[in-house]
Amino acid sequence: MQYDPTNPLIVQGDRSILVEVDNPKYAEARDALAPFAELEKSPEHIHTYRLSPLSLWNAAAAGLSAEAMIEVLRRYSKFPLPGNLAPDITELVSRYGRVRLEKYDTGDGSEPAPLRFVCNDVPLLEELARQPKIKIYLDKRLDKTSYLVEPGFRGVLKLALIGVGYPAEDLAGYTEGAAHPMKLRSVARSGLPFHVRDYQREAGEIFYAGGDVRGGSGVIVLPCGAGKTIVGISAMCMIQRKTLVLTTGITSVKQWRREILDKTDLPDSDVAEYTGEVKEIAPVTLATYQILTHRNDKTEEYPHFELFNKQDWGLIIYDEVHLLPAPVFRVTAQIQARRRLGLTATLVREDGREADVFSLIGPKKYDVPWRELESRGWIAEATCCEIRVALPEQQRMEYAVAEWRNKYRLASENPGKNDIVAVLLERYKDSRVLIIGQYLKQLRELSRRFDIPLVTGQTSNSEREQLYEQFRQGQIRHIVLSKVGNFALDLPDANVLIQVSGTFGSRQEEAQRLGRILRPKTGGEVAHFYTLVTRDTREQDFAHHRQLFLTEQGYSYQILDGAELLEEQNRLRRSAC
What we know:
Blueprint: E1 9-11, E2 16-20, H1 26-33, E3 38-41, E4 46-50, H2 53-61, H3 66-76, H4 85-95, E5 100-103, E6 115-118, H5 122-129, H6 132-135, E7 141-143, E8 146-149, H7 154-163, E9 169-171, H8 198-208, E10 217-221, H9 228-239, E11 243-247, H10 250-263, E12 271-274, E13 284-288, H11 289-292, E14 315-318, H12 326-333, E15 339-344, H13 354-361, E16 364-367, H14 370-375, E17 382-389, H15 393-401, H16 404-412, H17 416-427, E18 433-436, H18 440-450, E19 454-455, H19 461-473, E20 478-481, E21 496-499, H20 507-515, E22 527-534, H21 538-552, E23 557-561, H22 562-576
Parallel strand pairs: 5-9, 10-15, 10-16, 11-13, 11-14, 12-13, 14-15, 17-22, 17-23, 18-20, 18-21, 19-20, 21-22
Antiparallel strand pairs: 1-2, 2-4, 3-4, 5-6, 6-8, 7-8
């Protein structure tokens, strides 16, 4: 094959890939690479991707072959691929599905049925069966290619297998769960026409797979604002079984309930909430992660885990699966016979437990690039901008002598940011603006200075909903939000977001916050995402990591100087006088 030195990729033997950002083929190469490679660094001119085992296994589970991945690398590489690379990729991809879990029919109708741990490669089976972390879950040997496995070990065995580098393909099927008919409306309760978008329908169908054992567990990755809730509702209507939906908070529970009742023929009595406020159970039950992991004493068990056994669930939906609390992983490992659907805007977890999501919820089944949906008008076009703000002179010495663990907060609460917020609020005085941050002292100051309502975790749900409704109606145009604004915020007309502080280098938080302004606007306006960062501090270092998310999705970001922005504003004021 003839290699083209004008191509954008430099592919290296350690499975890292350097990508030239200024290359004319950059965008198409990035989009071809993203399904099977992870972005590690994104400075201005050269981005670094890596082919990790998990990124390759997720791609394989989504149907991408090793040959197709290698072909992408060859098509866009400047130089011949290193000799070891194609065999390495082929070997790693082939590991997915080399071992399988299948239902074992004992012939006596016993439930739950035991499982077979199957590997047709007998020497590999012998090797795995001797691994200490695996052999404890294997029962008697059935034949030369399989072992008997207790059904209760289904989840923990899959975790152990991915830990030794051989992810299992789970073909053991599911308990059907109690039937509960439901169907989508063609005209929503609200009176508006309703239809499932093509990518939403495709995502649901790929997950369900017509009821086959190869479907029924996995993760759908879609941008915030692209209608992940509709994908979940579509899956419910395909499966037609009692459903448990787990999500991030009471606001999200209420949003799910509104959407289910608006878009399906289910009556109000069939959709219940199980939260800190009310604990009802119905054929469709919506619960928060907080209530599931609540306990009065750290020494006791989690009392609300009983919810998983309160109904014969046919489907469990994990909303924002990248935020799944560690204790919920434990109970998820025990309910592998239930169909499981994860919904998320990013598979990145800050605790590094992506492999647990892969094993216990399922592999990535569907993913659409954000920019593709933007080009089709399903999410708003967005510009991203970082504004660098100097620390005021009186704060510089305080920062210089502060302990290392306090430096980030001092930089985040830089009072110089408040003047930049003033400039942006003046620029976008007629827009729907969200100001969002991490630290309550900072947010209260902004709320007082600009006379803008503040919503925090202490704001009652009724007051919160009232403020959101006033924002939707245009009665108020600006809101200050704490971290409660990261999740399930249904404010479709918000088109400017000003991020004054965040959770260190959290890429998942960057995804959630950008998603707050990506719902399509009635007038087709462009959304604007601003993040304020204190120059030459730890906050600027963490900002680089957060921006990895923007780069992964194909967004470029402009960097502006805060002092220049203020000077420009002053010039405009002087000229207006």
